[in-house]
Amino acid sequence: MPAQIAQPLNYTWPILLVIMSAIFLKQKLKPYSIIAITISFTGIILISLRGNFNLFEITEPLGVILAVDSSVIWALFWIFNVKDKRDEVVKLFLSFCFSTFFIFSVTLTFSDFTITNYNGLWAAIYVGAFEMAFPFVLWLIALKGVKSNEKLSNLVFISPFLSLIWIYIILDESVFYTTIIGLVLIIIGIFVQQFSKKLSK
Fold this sequence. Notes:
Layout: H1 3-10, H2 13-24, H3 31-49, H4 61-83, H5 88-110, H6 118-145, H7 149-154, H8 159-170, H9 177-200
């Protein structure tokens, strides 16, 4: 699956978080939440079409399902994280420890542990350190250092658009216009959700 498709689909976790909160935290799903979810999922459909508006010809449907499933996992992670009152960095460290043990166990169970190409190993180290560990810790520090978490959270919405630029420059992917429109719809849906929360207070 092209990176420009997988990345925006993975970014649907804030909307899925609302759905999961209604299921697991018994929070009411308000009308504006339904509107926000509808807008964002329209964006998901557009991204999945990859420039082809035939709904019955979605390219790589398994990849689309897996990308959205990762958002479900993220949403569940943050829901259970709310109920855990330990220090945030400690929780993050323990999560990585468990993940390392889990991945190592699965690897030994379903394959032999031999490294034939170190490029994959370096990529895994990079993802773990610079896409997960360090950014999460910096994010937690940033949350503690500002007066308004909402303003800081809005900066996150810049990342998917920056990602499209890097995807175009580094991976040399031609960005589909449906990807851009779909991503805009996903972000609009998230903004509707956030803005409506402020109005309801």
